[in-house]
Amino acid sequence: MATFPQVPDAGVGVSGEPIRGTITLQVPATPAHTAIARSAVASTVAAVGATADDVDDLRLVVSEAFALLLDHSHPDALITIHLQHRDELMHVTLITTTSNSAPILEKSLSWTVLTTLAQSVDVAVQPADPLFELTLTVQHRVQIPS
Q: Which of 26, 81, 96, 124 could be joined to 135 by an S-S link, Cβ 3.0–4.6 Å?
């Protein structure tokens, strides 16, 4: 499981209250839950005051990342999403379980979209007896207007 350092001032929400720490959402790994994940991330990104373009970009990033994980997730798996704003980057980590020890993500259209929009995209697969934990981490630069 990925670990995230606690950040004292991760961003300032539109209400003026700081947004701190990591926001975590866990949903079933089904196509029907893609919209929930997309909406939750878009709302969070908007709350830190990101531009409309960044909100739209991250909504698309989450849709494509979710689709990649759906293709490889184990039946009845969950997808856990960790979202954190640090410095000028929004860090989005999606984690699910899979029976595939070496999923190929890089040959899909979703991967192409992710790598085009994001600052960086990383994949990790680790044993989680008897399955494997598939982690997709995306970083996207966000502009916070002054």
A: 124
